[in-house]
Amino acid sequence: MAGGVFVDTGKGKAYPGNLTVYVIVTCVIAAMGGLIFGYDIGISGGVTTDSSFLARFFPSVRRREIQFDNDTSRSANQYCRFDSLILTLFTSSLYLAALLSSMVASTVTRLFGRKLSMLFGGVLFMIGALINGFAHAVWMLILGRILLGFGIGFANQSVPLYLSEMAPYKYRGALNIGFQLSITIGILVASVLNYAFLRIRGGWGWRLSLGGAVVPALIITIGSLVLPETPNSMIERGKQEEAREKLRRIRGVDNIDEEFHDLVAASEASIKVQHPWKNILFQRKYRPHLTMAIAIPFFQQFTGINIIMFYAPVLFQTIGFGTDASLMSAVITGAVNVAATVVSIYGVDKWGRRFLFLEGGIQMLICQIVVAICIGVRFGVNGVPGDLPRWYAIVVVLFICIYVSGFAWSWGPLGWLVPSEIFPLEIRSAAQSINVSVNMFFTFLVAQVFLVMLCNMKFGLFLFFGFFVIVMTIFVYFFLPETKNVPIEEMAIVWKQHWFWSRFMTEVDYPVGVDVEMKSEGKV
């Protein structure tokens, strides 16, 4: 099978260990780091449709909105209802800051541990939330957003690594997806709070929405103080005996010698690597890892999901929903997002990463085509819908929900899980930094240009993202190996046995003690 690589872990190493309560609790607390990212995604779209918020900070957008509302002939182009460069800068500036901070977070994570990065993330996010909640000018909003971005950069760098290193390899997928589940819960909570706060009389509810980000920031800040450090990080910083005891407690068994020695060996190899950034960028044996560190986050953003999540209220209002209805539709899609992520937690270590990637891609593509047709038929190219029947609104929301569910059990969680588990220790922090930076750059880019693209490409915008879904699904089929049930320190196996990537791995030996059986079909 050209696209598939399967690892028979029964012939490789099977480290002893249990799914202990200690591991579950620590991973749940760490995964809460995703709340800050999710809360921001969910809160931004709702706030940018609030009339009092727009009147205070973006009056030109509010004036245009009033013109649209007073257009009794319904002849105005709804596609361009919220087109504003400054308004999108408010949303997207955060992600540019996250890109920059992830570079610093890489060094902090490697030299001082995963916990300190989480702590920095929580504190920076908290300060940004307070500034936004008390903002009286646009510059305060932008400054607050930049600090929020710094916090997200640190959290997104450290939390996925922490989860992958703490989890037993058999349950790594499910526990790591806790990060994405936390993101989706943050989006849902933000959507519900938007619906409640933005209905407050007096026009100050947006302050509660923005300032409410202090709560998830407190959770990750306090969590980072009580969490243990990972054995990998302890060994990396020369604390071997502490790491041994911690590994024994994490796994819940005394027989941890084999896994511990492999972690030490990986750490010793990483110490010899003095320039991880130079190595991952220029050494041939890291070509598969570099490709995935760039391609996976790029494709994740070009599914178009953040268009739905950032701007769900804006989008629904654009296609004819009232303000309250658009906020409620965002709540519905947020609930679907959470439920579908739970499906991924159940299935990722049973069905595998590739199956979920491929199924989710096909599902998203079908829905994007249907939504494009629905919007195109009613709005045409002029953006003039006339009266929108109830059945139309139901169909659009239904297919957007099916689209969201497809993302939420595929590219959503796996876009964070797979990069965090495939990088060897010697380049892990640098590679994760590239992964986060690429993710944040394209999140920034898509957020910044979305409203302009919607105004100019109209319903064709959904087909634009549909094209990329086709490309990424083909990419996964041919180039992404299966990593289910493969210990992190044994991951070289999947690259050495892949039909394409094996040509870059000729200088890499199989992990000591792994019994590898070559088969004619290219399987391990």
Secondary-structure element string: HHHHHHHHHHHHHHHHHHHHHHH
Rg result: 23 Å
- Sequence stretches where pLDDT stays below 50 over 5 or more residues: 1-11, 518-524
Instruction: State which percent range the strand residues make up.
Output: under 5%
Q: How would you describe the shape?
A: globular
Number of helices: 23
Number of strands: 0
Ends distance = 12 Å
Structural class: mainly alpha
Mean pLDDT: 84
Largest sheet: none
Give the helix level as a range of percent.
over 70%
What keywords describe this structure?
single chain, 524 residues, 0% strand, globular
Model description:
It is a single chain. The chain is mainly α and 524 residues long. The protein is 72% helix and 0% strand. Helix 18 runs antiparallel to helix 22. The radius of gyration is 23 Å and the shape is globular.
Secondary structure layout plus pairing:
Blueprint: H1 21-31, H2 34-47, H3 51-57, H4 59-69, H5 85-112, H6 114-133, H7 138-166, H8 172-197, H9 205-211, H10 214-226, H11 231-236, H12 240-251, H13 257-271, H14 276-282, H15 287-301, H16 305-318, H17 323-351, H18 353-379, H19 390-408, H20 411-422, H21 428-457, H22 460-479, H23 492-496
How is this structure best summarized?
With 524 residues, the protein is mostly helical.
